[in-house]
Amino acid sequence: CNGADTRNAPSKIRLNRSPSCPNMIRKAPGHNVKRPGFETLLSLGVKINGVHVLRASTTKVVVHAGTKLYLVTLGATPSSTDLGVTANNSFSVSFQMNSKLYILDGAKYFTYDGTTVTEVVGYVPTILISRDPDGGTVYESVNLLSNFRWERFLGDAGSTVYQLSATGINADEVEVKSLQVDGTFSTLTEDTDFTVDRTAGTVTFDAAIPTPAVGVDNIYIKYSKTVTGYADRVKKCTICTLYGLNGAMDRIVISGNTDYKNTQWHSRSNDPTYIGDTYYTMSGQDSASIIGYSISGDYLAVHRDYSDNGSNVHLMRGSLVDAVFTLVSVGAYSSEGALSKYSFASFDNEPMYLTVNKNISAITPQDYSGEKFSQERSYYLTPLMESYVTQDSYACIWNGFYVL
């Protein structure tokens, strides 16, 4: 038997198929056996929202159950240890980078180093360099994950008041470093060496501090400025994938924020704690939501749930524009919209997903050249699936099967 056929009437089914295969599973092509049963390994008493694996020197399994994250050890005597954080009671997704696990739960962004779970602390960017007391050159983008930023100035012999690029800065301590003749930095103290007008965004020094070397920044100022909603652009995301330039897989791409349903953000290379406020692209119009990602070669396929012309897969490729990584649109092709964010999995090098028409479809490398459309892979099972699958259906690859 080659499997079930729930599409045709029993009298019309081919002899190598069955109208019903309860508890049967393929052991080898043409060889079916009774499906093994299930056993309970561990019960945490509440809904399991995610199982996340850190593969480092040792493998660690973090289970998101209800509003908690647990370190789970399986084996002869399964056990769980509460990792001591409060999470969102919703499905979570994760990825591994630099021997750390990063988890998005739709409200918070956690990192796990194999010992401790903490909320991600964002990289502090240097947003302006070569500034005179009144102007400067843009260097790095503001980080959505950090209120803090640095600005570097070229001090001169006549200026004591330095204008920051932001006004209404936070009450957090302002840090100032001054370059010395010997190349070291001294740390200056607020209300002793300088004063801060946080409303106006100015730093006033007791005396002018000229640069010790022509053209070299000598005043470094770190301050905090909250931009409402910036952190939530990342923390409300519920979709992620690794992607990069020429298939490098060294950046995280995230989406699924219902406030920005056709928008995706990406991180800096090998640093998921830095997602600049300019590191984003939009896929199509806001009439459709991004549901998930597939990757083939150096292409990123962005799956949406709907488009007016049926082009539900938006093709993008990483590119360097003025030495800055960006996602560039390279086309789209017609396919069924995606239904579940959690149904994407690559099976035998075919990216597969659950569609809005409640079938399992796959895309192939040929699709990217426009030679084919996505193809249904669950033709004989789709009528049975229609009563069960939802937008919360979850898929994984197991033992030669796409399990939904």
Give me the secondary-structure topology.
Layout: E1 24-28, E2 31-34, E3 48-55, E4 59-65, E5 68-73, E6 79-86, E7 93-97, E8 100-104, E9 109-112, E10 117-119, E11 126-132, E12 135-138, E13 148-153, E14 161-163, E15 175-179, E16 185-188, E17 194-197, E18 202-205, E19 219-224, H1 230-235, E20 239-243, E21 251-255, E22 263-266, E23 280-282, E24 290-296, E25 299-304, E26 313-321, E27 324-333, E28 345-347, E29 350-354, E30 360-362, H2 365-368, E31 375-376, H3 382-385, E32 396-398, E33 401-403
Parallel strand pairs: 11-13
Antiparallel strand pairs: 1-2, 3-4, 4-5, 5-6, 7-8, 8-9, 9-10, 11-12, 13-19, 14-18, 15-16, 15-19, 17-18, 20-21, 21-22, 22-23, 24-25, 25-26, 26-27, 28-29, 29-30, 30-31, 32-33
Span of the ends, CA to CA: 21 Å
The helix/strand class is mainly beta
The major β-sheet equals: 6 strands, mixed
Radius of gyration: 27 Å
Q: Fraction of residues in helices? A: under 10%
Ranges with pLDDT <50 over ≥5 residues? none
Number of helices: 3
Strand content: 35-45%
Count all strands and give the number: 33
| Large-scale geometry | elongated
Mean pLDDT over the residues: 92
Neighbour order of strands in the largest sheet: 12-11-13-19-15-16
Task: Describe the protein in words.
- With 404 residues, this protein is mainly beta.
- The protein is built from 3 helices and 33 strands.
- 3% of the residues lie in helices and 41% in strands.
- It has helices at 230-235, 365-368, 382-385, and strands at residues 24-28, 31-34, 48-55, 59-65, 68-73, 79-86, 93-97, 100-104, 109-112, 117-119, 126-132, 135-138, 148-153, 161-163, 175-179, 185-188, 194-197, 202-205, 219-224, 239-243, 251-255, 263-266, 280-282, 290-296, 299-304, 313-321, 324-333, 345-347, 350-354, 360-362, 375-376, 396-398, 401-403.
- The protein has a 6-stranded mixed beta sheet, with no helix packed on it. A 4-stranded antiparallel beta sheet has the order 3-4-5-6, with no helix packed on it.
- Strand 20 and strand 21 (251-255) form a beta hairpin.
